[in-house]
Known about the structure:
Largest sheet of chain A: 4 strands, parallel
Number of strands of chain A: 11
CATH superfamily of the largest domain in chain A: Metal-dependent hydrolases
CATH class of the largest domain in chain A: Alpha Beta
Helix content of chain A: 40-55%
Structural class of chain A: alpha/beta
Oligomer: homotrimer
Strand order of the largest sheet of chain A: 6-7-10-11
CATH architecture of the largest domain in chain A: Alpha-Beta Barrel
Amino acid sequence: MTLHPDRLFPSDPAMRELARSLYASVADAPIVSPHGHTEPRWWALDESFADPATLFVTPDHYVTRMLVSQGVPFEALGIGAAKEEDPREIWRTFAAHFHLFRGTPSRLWIEHSLETVFGITERLSAATADAIYDRVAEALPRDELRPRAIAERFRIEVVATTDGALDDLSYHRQVRESGWPVRIVPTYRPDAVVDPQATGFAENVEELGRVAGISTASWQGYLDAHRARRAFFRDHGATATDHGHATPQTADLPPDEAAALYEKVRTGKLDNGAAELFRAQMLTEMARMSAEDGMVMQLHSGSHRNHSAHVLQTYGRDNGFDIPLPVSFTDALRPLLNAVGHDPDLRLILFALDEATYTRELAPLAGAWPSILLGPPWWFHDSFEGIMRYRRQVTETAGFYNSAGFNDDTRALTSIPARHDLARRADASFLAELVTTHRLDEDEAHDLAWLMAGDLARKAYRF
Amino acid sequence: MTLHPDRLFPSDPAMRELARSLYASVADAPIVSPHGHTEPRWWALDESFADPATLFVTPDHYVTRMLVSQGVPFEALGIGAAKEEDPREIWRTFAAHFHLFRGTPSRLWIEHSLETVFGITERLSAATADAIYDRVAEALPRDELRPRAIAERFRIEVVATTDGALDDLSYHRQVRESGWPVRIVPTYRPDAVVDPQATGFAENVEELGRVAGISTASWQGYLDAHRARRAFFRDHGATATDHGHATPQTADLPPDEAAALYEKVRTGKLDNGAAELFRAQMLTEMARMSAEDGMVMQLHSGSHRNHSAHVLQTYGRDNGFDIPLPVSFTDALRPLLNAVGHDPDLRLILFALDEATYTRELAPLAGAWPSILLGPPWWFHDSFEGIMRYRRQVTETAGFYNSAGFNDDTRALTSIPARHDLARRADASFLAELVTTHRLDEDEAHDLAWLMAGDLARKAYRF
Amino acid sequence: MTLHPDRLFPSDPAMRELARSLYASVADAPIVSPHGHTEPRWWALDESFADPATLFVTPDHYVTRMLVSQGVPFEALGIGAAKEEDPREIWRTFAAHFHLFRGTPSRLWIEHSLETVFGITERLSAATADAIYDRVAEALPRDELRPRAIAERFRIEVVATTDGALDDLSYHRQVRESGWPVRIVPTYRPDAVVDPQATGFAENVEELGRVAGISTASWQGYLDAHRARRAFFRDHGATATDHGHATPQTADLPPDEAAALYEKVRTGKLDNGAAELFRAQMLTEMARMSAEDGMVMQLHSGSHRNHSAHVLQTYGRDNGFDIPLPVSFTDALRPLLNAVGHDPDLRLILFALDEATYTRELAPLAGAWPSILLGPPWWFHDSFEGIMRYRRQVTETAGFYNSAGFNDDTRALTSIPARHDLARRADASFLAELVTTHRLDEDEAHDLAWLMAGDLARKAYRF
């Protein structure tokens, strides 16, 4: 394996030549990462990564789920009570099964990282496992492989993390106070204090009151506590909120009904219906606050989290067992949109796992409502084919300018440049296709390549 | 910008050469336009269009919704109480935002019209706005730019308009009496007298009785009034009916239950359930009448009309805020189909906005039921990618012959040739792909190109 | 018409050359057919086929539905009380309408059979109907055109048939006792004794008890009777079961509730809800038995069978009037999966007609749960475009190794090699696309082509 300079460009020579030229003009553009899951601690403490398995295998649920799907036990990947403790053994298991990733984006991301970060160009396999392990392990303690050095090497300009409403943001403060020029900004993710069915909801809501200095015993107090925490996040550089809901259902109850509903969920007298209605109401409240304070609102919906009860119980959350559900935004978003959807200060970015919504709902919504932008292909769809389907399906109705640009959404630091590179190549291929079929002029394609590589994200997230 | 002669043909040289040759044989074929929304008045009075903004911007909801989605107020586009009155100012706003249409069919349609109708080959922008405005404005009063001249220049053979059941069809009569050889035929669209939740339904039903000369106080009278109006439409050249329903639900109640339901909706004692059931029942009644009188039945379903309450209230209907919904035809159509679906005189043409139904339902339905044909890609999907998806998804199961050919479905006169040209190019590209991959012989592709350019529509609509 | 050696390979020269080479290495690989509907009698008695119409037209519902959809009566195709009895007349009708199959897989399968089995290279049409009929009819009585000779000529290694739970498998025994080396194995398909709404359910369940020698009067007896029949099938070579359910709903009731539900359905006291719940419960019971006895479980769901009441009544089942429905696996499979989904001996192969589930649910499920594999594109989707959509949509999330390989699923003997050839060509095209865009190395593509041509199916079905 070596990274081919023409990877992901169309085979047709005319298209390939143009894709090359479009990509070349953005290949080294600064990276804007407005949504993701890197650890604030990495950026604050700037410590070396422990070992190759910790960097590439154990915490990457794209990797672990695929291995588990073919019979590898979680334990062999360093997860669970009886877990394998030797990172080299974990790495060997990973390497011996590396063929499972053929045709997947994980393969492309991992090889990109191994080559561009570690200079490794051999293909990973049982035979090469130890040699590659040694080279990565040897390199990891070096200064140029600490988080900040990697960010600088790949020209990362800004990274948004995703942080609970109760987080004290001390790592963010520490980064800022260090004077390091890369912007590491938090994102307000209040799910644990918004979802009445979240573990410890009642305590979380009390704690929200404490950290905000506003009693959450009343509906008004609860909303004001959110306002205070949003302001606190903004003071630490946040420009956005993020909401992970199973469905995109919204509601817009009269204030007294909303207050009564809050009283019910706060005191634990809830059933499924009340919980869903409260989450729905809170999306509208968050949208209202976004229209007030200008924080960009992101909605990630449509995943059945923790599909396997056994995996949740034994190994915990975020282990690859989240499975998407059919979703419809059209009716679900109406209450929110009819409440604040025409407010010029609201910006709502929608993410979807049900691709059937791309042409049916998302492109028509973004191509009409001034407050809506479309997030990039999310999760399973952040892949070459996923990006091409997205572009081909949303562009004709929503255009390019109703897009929020690219998000890497990653938990794996070295995959940030890998994912942006993949997206820039896919976008170059898509634009080349439009130009060679005379649907776009070449100067426009160059202009758009630049927008898609960064400016759309900067504008969408108000950076 | 200039219209490239190879636009929309594949980049691969072998496919391109064949696509060119297939397209060449149909490029100048007469245009059959069996479904659309041109104004009967245009054809009857043959007056010049007022100004460039009225021709290209204000009434085109594809254009206005995109501008609104990026923050342009409706007023700046000539819509609303405080609207901009100067067409040149509207045009300037449009031109300054023309980059928003990159990658959209609107861009291709507009440039096709500007070049083929007005000879303009510069790209529209803030810089060229005034010059292009002047050239279009100057040309508009000329005789060759009146509606009939445009129709003749583009070899339009027949145009179906869409007309309410109460319409007196006087413009259609006027066209016919003028001896002009282009067929302008009405289409019976009874939604306002069929949907109990339509504004003024009770009055509409009474008026239906008056214009038909048959009392609509009874279920039987109501059905007979429909029969009379359908006959009146046929006398004016109509060959088809059209039905815009939010869902494709049908029902087949026993006559006495249907009569009781009619009594309920006629007297305003309706709830959501009764209204939906009545619409469902009426689709089956219309299908029965189609089997009697041979009028081709079109069903357009799956749009949540007027998604924004604010836009509806302030600016009215058809302003780009109609958003599709998930739809399923399989169970919904069964009552109608089991009532009359095997009648050799019934022809039912289905249109869809939920592309997930293409392979799942529509192609299997059309590939089995003798009464069903598939309408072309509708609305948001009447685009290059939309057409390619449709062909690739329905052809293998339904073949080419269960298709109703192309519809332009437009409100914009000069986009009729633009849309047919786009569809013919897309079809040529699709056929070229089948031939170069040896799934079809070249003589068959030429035969099919001709069918798709007109004969399928002529046959489907019984012209 | 002649079969072009490059058919279904991409037009782009670089991709085509590679696709050719990938295909060449598997073109003559043995055929593994783990799911289909050939008649056991054919293999046991090895009689000649009667005539061309019986071989190619009357029993092939892909063919008959398409002709019916364009107005040909079932009777003209040899179906129904007043059916045409002369096979030559049936053939003439078929030939005169052969253009209807342009762009469909039926066209490709039929031409493959005519050329490779009968040496016929003329295109079928009204003009060539008689000559081709004569050549096929003349050839049919020859020894080399009997079922076993055809299987040997095309290197068929194993064929699974689909057999009711009550079947005595005498034909399978006869084949085995004949010493013929091709494996003809049954598949346990218990729908008629599992679906309380199946015709004759109560009698079927009693008969199940009789043939199993275990009374089915109790829930435990009923389950044990299934166990006994599964063992009987295994003794005859079966490695798999198959379940055709309208929905993939599963349930996991406590044993006493399940027993009470069984008592209800056994004694005919059932409503729609109880019937659906029983089918749902039985999927979980079957999965439990699969985990016990190692039989691979196949689930085919999502079809509304017998959509036309008239066709069912007049012409019977399996006449092309089965129409897919929207389906979701995510919530529906949870009870089964949480009961046995982590059992290392369970293997569940999922088939879908709703392609919206490919990226939304199926690839994520197969890419996580160790027990799940994905069946190949089913029914309407077993076509070139269908296969390409499937590969492009599932591979990035599920990889290649969570696939069960190819199934031909056919009722038409000569279409077995035709369908495997089509699939191998499509897979070669897909792999060539990955290699030329540098997402996969060439040696890996060769390795995968071989896996996809047989080994994945051998492994999935435990052959």
